[in-house]
Amino acid sequence: MNVAALVAAVTDAWAADPDSDVVWAGDHEGRRGVRMRQTVRDYTTVWFEVGDRTLGIEAYVLPAPPFNREEVYRQCLARNAGTRRIRFALDRDGDIVLVGRVAREEVTEGELELMLGEVYAMVEVAFRPFVHAAFSRENKG
User: Fold this and answer.
1) What is the pLDDT of residues 96-138, one digit of tens each?
2) The model's pTM
3) According to the CATH classification, is domain 3-135 in 3.80.30.20?
4) H/E/C letters for each residue in 17-55?
5) Phi, psi of 50 (to 5 degrees)
6) Which stretch of DSSP H or E encloses residue 73?
7) Which residue among 13, 16, 118, 137 has the highest number of C-beta atoms inside a 10 angstrom radius?
């Protein structure tokens, strides 16, 4: 099975499983997306993009911090130290996103589940501290 077909089959299975927190899977602008329920916010949309050599993953986390940017960025870097597949990054607008890449030959159903699980866990742990720092007018340092 090619990587794009595997990603489609696995994400469709997640969305079809009533015990899964994935509520939607579909294609948009050349990428495959899923929406998963979270406890710290309603949903996180995760995008998979099959490239020539890698499978990329991206999830939007938070808009560019209006306050305490240095503290939010420090938190991002500190949290990146404990991850394997997924990292916090800034997109071209300065928004905080999660990104990752896996070589195409490493993509399996299990690897897709681990990637999605890591996104879920990172959002669950980091979202509230990021929001608190980014939208608090208090100077954190």
Assistant:
1) 999 999 999 999 999 999 999 999 999 999 999 999 999 987 6
2) 0.92
3) no
4) CCCCCEEEEEEECCEEEEEEECCCCCEEEEEEEECCCEE
5) -85, 120
6) helix 69-80
7) 118
